[in-house]
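Example 3.2
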Amino acid sequence: ARLWTLEKRGSDAREAASSKLRDGGLLTRVEAAEYLAVSTKKLQRMEAAGTLTRCPRLGTLVRYASRDVLRLASANGKER
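Structure, written as tokens:
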């Protein structure tokens, strides 16, 4: 039952990410990680390396611009 719940949660995040990418919205760290098929820790490392930047002026909220996520997806051959 727990595995099904985790899979369902991941599926929901992927669907939300795809919807936000179509609309040009902002993605959460979890949504971006699901879309790029990487861990949230990997996204944090990408931020530290300067490969990915957070949207400014959101305080402690972490959001990424859809154009940045799509750029990374196409560079890594993970375009969906």
